[in-house]
Amino acid sequence: MKKLEENIFLIGFMGAGKSTVAAELERQLHIPRAEMDALIVEREGMAISDIFAEKGETYFRDAETALLKDLTEKKGIIISCGGGAVMRDENAALMKQCGKIVLLTATPETIYERVKDSTDRPILNGNMNVDYIRELMEKRKDRYLAVADVVVATDQKSAEEITREILAAF
Ligand code: S3P
């Protein structure tokens, strides 16, 4: 891979492996990584589920947009995005402008297995099941695919394998 002059955005549904793969990319490429969710938690001083419960989803989405604007002032970083960040047109446009977008996918069954014990996925509160995951994934699929430069399926693959596929595609 050539010297990274843009950013790499990792997008995809909750549990698609964005954070794990971002860490592996950072390890292999020696390029700094930004975790959007972790940075929002740091900025707000609250867990994601508390932000949703106490301030509401729109507040969270605004925080996400503000963070993305700040992060894209830099070049050459790996940005692991929250699963819903790319759904805002403004955010999707900014990502397209500022880097390569890698979409990680997995089946609803795989996603369920990965997130079922999570207590900090407010979007799935009360709906932690394969059918709901499939339904929400269906609603997001077109946007995910429309913005992606590279698509990598992650089912039954290690972070190393996924990272190899990403780097081969660049
Ligand atoms: C969300 C995904 C989460 C987090 C928030 C909302 C979503 O991030 O940003 O709970 O709408 O898909 P992960 O994709 O890292 O779980």
TrEMBL record:
| Domain of life of the organism encoding this protein | Bacteria
According to the record, cofactor stoichiometry and binding are noted as:
Binds 1 Mg(2+) ion per subunit.
Coiled-coil spans are none
What are the binding positions for ATP in this chain?
A: G15, A16, G17, K18, S19, T20, R121
Which SUPFAM superfamilies does the record associate with it?
P-loop containing nucleoside triphosphate hydrolases
Question: Where does this protein hold substrate?
Answer: D37, R61, G83, R140
Write the record's keywords in alphabetical order, separated by commas: Amino-acid biosynthesis, Aromatic amino acid biosynthesis, ATP-binding, Cytoplasm, Kinase, Magnesium, Metal-binding, Nucleotide-binding, Transferase
Major site of localization recorded for this protein: cytoplasm
- Entry-linked CDD domains: SK (cd00464)
Which EC numbers does the record give? 2.7.1.71
InterPro entries (UniProt xref) = P-loop_NTPase, Shikimate/glucono_kinase, Shikimate_kinase/TSH1, Shikimate_kinase_CS
GO MF terms listed in the record are: kinase activity
Q: What pathway does this protein act in?
A: Metabolic intermediate biosynthesis; chorismate biosynthesis; chorismate from D-erythrose 4-phosphate and phosphoenolpyruvate: step 5/7
Subcellular location(s) per record:
Cytoplasm
The Swiss-Prot or TrEMBL record lists the needed cofactor(s) as: Mg(2+)
Pfam families the UniProt entry points to = SKI (PF01202)
Q: Where does Mg(2+) bind?
A: S19
Reactions catalysed, semicolon-separated, are:
shikimate + ATP = 3-phosphoshikimate + ADP + H(+)
Function description: Catalyzes the specific phosphorylation of the 3-hydroxyl group of shikimic acid using ATP as a cosubstrate.
Q: How does it assemble?
A: Monomer.
Q: Which family does it belong to?
A: Belongs to the shikimate kinase family.
Question: HAMAP family per the record?
Answer: Shikimate_kinase
Name of the protein in question: Shikimate kinase
Protein's gene: aroK
